[in-house]
Amino acid sequence: MVQLDRLERAVLPAQTGHHWWSYFAEGALLVLLGIAAILVPVIASVAFAFVLGIIFLIAGGAGVISAISHPKQPGLAWSLISAAITIVAGLLLAGGPVRGALSLTFVLAVYLFAEGIASFAYAWSHRDHLPHGWGWMLLNGVIDIMMGAVVVWVLPFFVAALWVLGLFIGIDFILGGFSLIRMGATARHQDPVSARR
Known about the structure:
Strand content: under 5%
Shape: globular
Number of strands: 0
Order of helices and strands: HHHHHHHH
Largest sheet: none
Distance between the termini: 15 Å
Number of helices: 8
């Protein structure tokens, strides 16, 4: 069990209580995005791949401009190679979002496993000053890991792999959103005096 010193016990709960609305707002946004993704999972999958491709194209273009505008900087060639790789990845995702969505389904599995572990760590770090809210984040981590295992299982099936990306992104957003809303509600009613005990 992590032991907080006297100053941390006094400051952390008060800070969390003052910023309860940020947990709540982020949670509400995630729930809305999650519902949208679940309603149209295939569209969400393809749209996600396309938008990610556009982001890569912009990032790669910015990398090229940055490298060209500083031609005497060390590592110019590596900067241009990095930007070119980013542009190619963007072209592949934006130009073939269905194929990109299938590739991203694999990335989703990795993301869900990593997010599950991060949720465990996040929940564990909040257990001392949010005693009634951190369990929801812990549950979110367990469900993330379970969904990651399901994604790995459906990867060989084309239609299921395409459909599951949007569906699981939606589920993950909703669970994460509800856990943040619960943490915000708990933080709003947190008693700093009792939290210090």
